[in-house]
Design goal:
The complex is a heterodimer of chains A (379) and B (328).
Chain A (H helix, E strand, L loop, with lengths): L1 H9 L17 H11 L1 H18 L1 H4 L20 E3 L4 E12 L6 E24 L3 E10 L18 H37 L1 H16 L2 H10 L7 H31 L3 H8 L4 H38 L10 H6 L4 H6 L5 H23 L6
Helix pairs in contact in A: 2-13, 3-5, 3-13, 5-6, 5-8, 5-10, 6-8, 7-8, 8-10, 9-10, 10-13
Chain B lengths: L1 H27 L5 H11 L6 H10 L6 H15 L4 E2 L4 E2 H36 L4 H15 L2 H15 L19 H38 L2 H8 L4 H7 L1 H5 L1 H5 L1 H19 L4 H10 L3 H29 L1 H4 L2
Antiparallel strand pairs in B: 1-2
Helix pairs in contact in B: 1-15, 5-6, 5-8, 5-13, 5-15, 6-8, 7-8, 7-13, 8-13, 13-14, 13-15, 14-15
Classes of the chains: A alpha+beta (379), B mainly alpha (328).
């Protein structure tokens, strides 16, 4: 690239500037970025993904309560709308609950009582927490001014735990399990896909048969079998690690196929031959010369692989053989919604599902845009 | 063609052997065995556990043998006698439990596959021919959503809607009054009604993926010279599209049976648990949790075999459609 650049500088006819964008002089990444920016849906998806990761990073501060805080007085309390205008002055508040007996089922139900006003503030003091296990604090972004008042913006579950806080805390596990799992798949995928594509022949044949075999086993029964084998005595962290290993066991196959295809496509290009004739080591050729030319494709494939991991974790935890309480992930939260009668009673139990769908959609749009942008020379 | 068929069928044998080994290892993975959990169950109920009885039980079920011996006993009984062993949990032969449920799983997966094609094909064609129209945008958006919604969540939401709007519970396979009734037209209709939601749920992600594939493939074909030629000769537009480019774009429909089937079987597992259908899914989950090894192993084995056979059928169909594959 440096040779190209100096050539451009020597030749003044090449450096015509089109609206501030010098297409001839822009590098691959610059071109890809320009192409990506044209894809509005992908940019929107990217922004949403960044926001969700920020929420996951600052969960303790953003959530009004801790993930396990419960209040037996408010089981299945419905969501309270957040108001800013009380008829006279501006100010955040929610309405409290009053208990009513349902005339049909004779069950006690909470109804929102417009008479009761619970003032709500920003940056209020609430339950103490330790941010990232480092700083102690008790400041929450939003919460009732009097900590003893109830505030359930997205409703409460069976034990009177705040759904909003639990969804925010669940983001941390659900979002990182995708990243860690894909990281592991990527390692295996680059290693085995790279070997397969670079050397070809018998090695390639063997790895391809292995991939075909893994793809032939229905994944959910396979995962169920493996997940059921996790001993119940393991700590939550160990279970988390086991689940990511199980998910990447199948996840690497797709990435390996992409990487193999890219290796096959460019292994006979002139610049690879030139590097080989220069005496570069094989690892050097792969890492220094070949990998950069398809890194953008790999980034796109990785982005598209994360949603599959998130969906898989959600399904396994939902079935009760993935992550287990007290760990909070979106799948674990959805376990509460397993019984259709509790869903009919408290439809807000499905909110974690909405979080899953939004995340997966955003990642899919982002990945789609990245895939188009990965090949900036195509049009 | 015959040469290809024989080669393809022979290729299946090592895959089947590998699958049976994986299925067997999978059920051997949990620490302890069935007798351990039986002993735990007995002592929880306050019964005294006699070690000699346990040892006898282990010997009776062959659990004291080395693992490869156990594998050989297991697989040779299946292959030569059709004997899948005995379910410890239900105390009946595994094959009694297996076949009825496997049949229903197959019916469900197959119906979902047909439904997937019936919807995805016309929508994909429309989406490509009327590119960037309102309909195309709607189809594209819906297919993205379809890919993002987990099967079990869609099932839950549909169940919730049915309960709220119509006041009916749509789980299970029959309404209460038909559960033990003899077969009749009414019972069949009742069954069909109960199958609607599972089929829609199962087909959703497949439809979404196939619409995208069909659209992309057809867009590649639509602007080729042979289409222009046919149009210049005065063929009506829809007949022309159906006759030439659609046929060329159809290949992926056949070749995707290979991966649609494992996905359908996977999806059917979770969906069936949510919708409480008597397919393999709920039984597999229960067997895995109870360490009912022969039952779990037989089910994982049969689901995988079903998938391999599906892939075989798709490969053979593809070879029949496309001569280039036969002679490669």
């Amino acid at each position: 690239m440096s040779i190209e650049q100096s050539q451009h500088e020597l030749d003044p006819t090449l450096s015509d500037d089109r609206g501030g964008r010098n297409i001839e002089r822009a590098g691959q990444w610059q071109l890809a970025w320009w192409k990506f920016k044209r894809h509005k849906l992908a940019v929107a998806g990217g922004i949403v993904v960044i926001l969700i990761y920020l929420v996951a990073a600052f969960a303790e501060f953003l959530a009004p309560y801790g993930p396990g805080d419960y209040s037996a007085r408010y089981t299945y309390a419905p969501p309270q709308p957040l108001n800013i205008w009380n008829g006279e002055s501006l100010g955040l508040f929610v309405n409290g609950y009053s208990v009513k007996v349902n005339p049909d089922s004779l069950a006690r139900e909470f109804v929102i009582d417009p008479e009761i006003v619970i003032p709500v503030g920003l940056f209020v003091e609430g339950a103490p927490y330790k941010m990232w296990g480092l700083f102690e604090s008790n400041i929450h972004l939003i919460g009732p001014l009097d900590a003893s008042d109830p505030m359930y913006l997205w409703g409460a579950d069976r034990l009177g735990r705040d759904m909003l806080s639990r969804v925010i805390h669940g983001a941390r596990i659900s979002m990182t399990i995708g990243l860690v799992g894909v990281g592991m798949s990527l390692f295996l995928g680059i290693l085995l896909g790279g070997i397969s594509g670079y050397y070809g022949g018998q090695v390639d044949n063997f790895i391809q048969r292995l991939i075909e075999f893994l793809l032939a086993i229905p994944t959910i029964p396979l995962w169920m079998g493996l997940a059921a084998a996790i001993p119940p005595t393991l700590s939550p962290i160990q279970v988390y690690f086991m689940i990511t290993v199980i998910l990447s066991l199948v996840g690497w196959t797709g990435l390996a196929r992409v990487i193999r295809g890219r290796f096959m496509a460019i292994k006979n290009e002139d610049f690879v031959t030139a590097a080989r004739l220069d005496g570069t080591s094989e690892l050097g050729i792969m890492m220094r010369h070949m990998a950069p030319s398809f890194a953008s494709h790999i980034i796109a494939s990785v982005t598209l692989a994360i949603p599959a991991m998130i969906l898989a974790e959600t399904a396994l935890s939902f079935l009760g053989i993935g992550l287990r309480p007290p760990v909070v992930s979106w799948g674990v939260l959805l376990q509460e919604a397993q019984n259709i009668r509790s869903v009919a009673l408290a439809p807000w139990l499905l909110v974690p599902g909405a979080a899953v769908i939004i995340t997966v959609l955003a990642l899919n749009f982002l990945g789609d845009g990245l895939r188009d942008a990965a090949d900036p020379y195509s049009d | 063609m015959l040469h290809y068929v024989i080669k393809r069928v022979l290729y299946m044998i090592p895959t089947m052997i590998a699958i049976s080994i994986v299925a067997f290892l999978l059920i051997q993975l949990p620490p302890g065995d069935f007798v351990t959990s039986l002993a735990a169950q007995m002592s929880a109920q306050g019964d005294s556990v006699d070690p000699t009885t346990l040892a006898m039980l282990r010997r009776q079920y062959g659990l004291d043998q080395p693992i490869w011996v156990q594998y050989w006993i297991w697989i040779s009984n299946i292959v030569f006698h059709g004997d899948f062993g005995r379910s410890f949990d239900f105390d009946v032969p595994v094959s009694d439990l297996l076949w009825a449920r496997l049949g229903l799983t197959f019916v469900l997966a197959f119906t979902a596959l047909v439904f997937t094609w019936l919807v995805a094909l016309p929508v994909g064609i429309y989406s490509a021919v009327r590119k960037y129209s309102v309909g195309d945008y709607v189809a594209t958006f819906l297919s993205f959503v379809g890919l993002a919604v987990p099967n079990f969540l869609l099932a839950l939401v549909l169940m919730y809607i049915a309960l709220q709007l119509f006041g009916v519970s749509i789980d299970g396979l029959y309404s209460a009054q038909y559960a033990n009734a003899p077969w009749s037209w009414e019972k069949f209709l009742d069954l069909a009604q109960h199958l609607v939601v599972p089929v829609i749920v199962l087909a959703s992600s497949g439809i979404a993926a196939l619409v995208r594939i069909m659209r992309a493939n057809l867009l590649d074909e639509l602007f080729k010279p042979y289409v222009t030629t046919a149009r210049a000769k005065g063929l009506s537009e829809w007949r022309l599209i159906a006759k030439y480019p659609v046929r060329a774009a159809l290949n992926p429909f056949v070749s995707t049976i290979g991966w649609t089937l494992p996905e359908l079987v996977s999806g059917a597992t979770v969906t069936a648990i949510v919708l409480n259908l008597p397919t393999t899914g709920p039984l597999l989950l229960r067997a895995l949790i109870a360490q009912d090894v022969y039952l779990a192993g037989a089910m994982i084995l049969m689901l995988s075999v079903l998938t391999v056979i599906g892939t075989l059928i798709s490969d053979l169909l593809l070879a029949w459609l496309d001569p280039r594959i036969r002679y490669r």
